[in-house]
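I'll show a sample.
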Amino acid sequence: MKLTLNLDPELVEKVSEIAADRQITINDLFNQELAKIIREDEAAAEERKREAIEALKRSFDESSFPVGKRTWTRADLHERR
């Protein structure tokens, strides 16, 4: 896909130097860096998800509610009237 960007000339000059040092095109450099940003973002999202799950598990472990004695039977629940 083609994309038009308006970049600061100094930024383009420095990016061009980095790409030349790595012996790749500016296009390839942008693709690599964008892919890296996406991987880092996905990893961070996975970490946030893992932390949320752990917090939920901790809250379940730390919470207890007295339920009381069961005064009904399964048959009572399914009794037809």
Residues 9-63 form one domain. The chain has a mean pLDDT of 93.
